Amino acid sequence: MGNFPELQTQNLVLREIADADAEDLLRIHGDAEHMKWFGSDPLTDIEAAITLVHTFAKWRQEPASGTRWGIQLKRAPGLIGTCGLFRWNPRWRTCVIGYEISRLHQGRGYMTEALAAVLGWGFAEMALNRVEAQVHPDNRPSLALLGKFGFVEEGLLREAGYWAGLHHDLMLHSLLKRDWGSGRAV
């Protein structure tokens, strides 16, 4: 996929995630209550966080996987979250979006700002036609965020996720390129 595509917004830098970010990832992904909808078990130690850094980096080396950005405030060092486009199918021009933000930074509009940049990049640079999101039906903040961008609910994926020792239903939402610039998106 070439060089890592750093993105800048009014308040944020979306950049490559590095080993030095492992402690920030552990703080975010180790918060079991806050990460209950993320789709994986919470991280338990710094080694698991470093493994996650390497997993995100490996995505860019795979032929059709994707990109995960670290979200950093322009005015302060360290990650406040991540977001990315993954499960990229270049032939079908589709992918899945995923994101999480620290509890401290939730509700401040940062993820809206980050996803606007990532979606714009995906439609322009990856030539995407469709972006999917899979969200737990009880994750109201995430569902509201998708609504801001005009994602359309398509249905329930029964027991599509498995974490915390349980199977979880997920709601499938999608955003088409033709809807991206139609005024429905932020």
UniProtKB/TrEMBL annotation:
User: What PROSITE patterns does its record include?
Assistant: GNAT
Q: Which InterPro entries match?
A: Acyl_CoA_acyltransferase (IPR016181), GNAT_dom (IPR000182), N-acetyltransferase (IPR051531)
In which domain of life is the source organism classified?
A: Bacteria
A Pfam family reported for this protein in Swiss-Prot or TrEMBL: Acetyltransf_3
Does the record's keyword annotation contain Acyltransferase? yes
- The EC number on file is 2.3.-.-
Transmembrane ranges, per UniProt, are: none
Keywords per UniProt: Acyltransferase, Transferase
Name any one GO molecular function.
Answer: acyltransferase activity
Q: What is this protein called?
A: GNAT family N-acetyltransferase
In this chain the N-acetyltransferase domain maps to 12-176
